[in-house]
């Protein structure tokens, strides 16, 4: 297949592109290399892709309609994976317009082009953050998620609604994937594991929010990418049992699906830090702080639908996953 991936200089996007290229797909990658975090890391991810046969690199922002239109017109992708977004919960409190531009306007440009170029399947990144104030564990895709607690979460929920509208109106197969706290090699410097590792090695205190009482369904990046690949290959179809009198939010009479991709095994943040300390061989200095605005205390993914439909469940333990991250970090930063 020819697959268009947005966000190929990103953490998940670069890992997915490597996987699809390795199995023989063509990949057209879009990224704008913005400076939300270290651009040299983004470029290093891209540098692993550029020499590979079948990879085409395009520099563009999703909110640039003309640029996105041109990519679809020139490359005519069979399928699309939309991973590019303005990420980060706390950053959305400071720079809300960036989220509307990239996550709403940008996603609209993707939807419009998928519609007009007969794309066979659009898979897009949603987020566990859509569960917001929801506390019924584990989080189920069949539950309504109408109470986001950050603008980032609101944009991801909006993506799901926009995708359903295009699926319903234009019979566009769409699948939304709610990722749960992704970590691993080539990760994002603004995420906890990356920041903790850097500060522990430097002998600096780490900020531990909610006094360490968080639980997170930490999910290793290769598990996320395996889930993305399997759902990409399993084109969304209408649910023949969908009942408008009792509507299921995870499916539709249109070719629309939503799945959680998480480890289905929440871990205390304190335990996560302990494993990292063990892998680094060094103790952290902990600065305990209250829950931050926009954060949720706990996440826990129900992945039963993912197992049923694509026969996959993430299984990498935090001991194994953090070990892989630390090995990569030491090698990349030579520490």
The main sheet comes to:
7 strands, parallel
Average pLDDT figure: 96
The counted number of beta strands is 13
> Uncertain segments of ≥5 residues (pLDDT<50)?
none
Straight-line N-to-C gap = 40 Å
Tell me the radius of gyration. Answer: 19 Å
Strand order of the largest sheet: 3-2-1-4-5-6-11
**From the helix content, strand content and strand pairing, which structural class follows?**
alpha/beta
Q: Helical region count?
A: 11
Overall shape: it is: globular
Strand content: 15-25%
Tell me roughly what share of residues is in helical segments.
40-55%
- The run of helices and strands is EHEHEHEHHEHEEHEEEHEEHEHH
Describe this entry's structure for a reader.
There is one protein chain. By secondary structure, the chain is of the alpha/beta class. The protein is built from eleven helices and 13 strands. The strands form four sheets. A seven-stranded parallel β-sheet has the order 3-2-1-4-5-6-11, sandwiched between helices. β5, α6 and β6 (174-179) form a beta-alpha-beta unit. α5 packs parallel to α6, α7 (192-202) packs across α9 and α9 packs across α11. The protein is globular and about 55 Å long. The N and C termini lie far apart (40 Å).
Q: Which terms would index this structure?
A:
335 residues, alpha/beta, seven-stranded parallel sheet, two-stranded parallel sheet, 11 helices, 41% helix
Detail the topology: elements first, then pairings:
Blueprint: E1 2-6, H1 11-22, E2 26-31, H2 39-49, E3 55-59, H3 65-75, E4 79-82, H4 91-94, H5 96-116, E5 121-127, H6 151-170, E6 174-179, E7 182-183, H7 192-202, E8 205-208, E9 215-216, E10 219-220, H8 221-233, E11 256-261, E12 267-268, H9 269-280, E13 285-288, H10 304-310, H11 318-333
Parallel strand pairs: 1-2, 1-4, 2-3, 4-5, 5-6, 6-11, 7-10, 8-13
Antiparallel strand pairs: 9-12
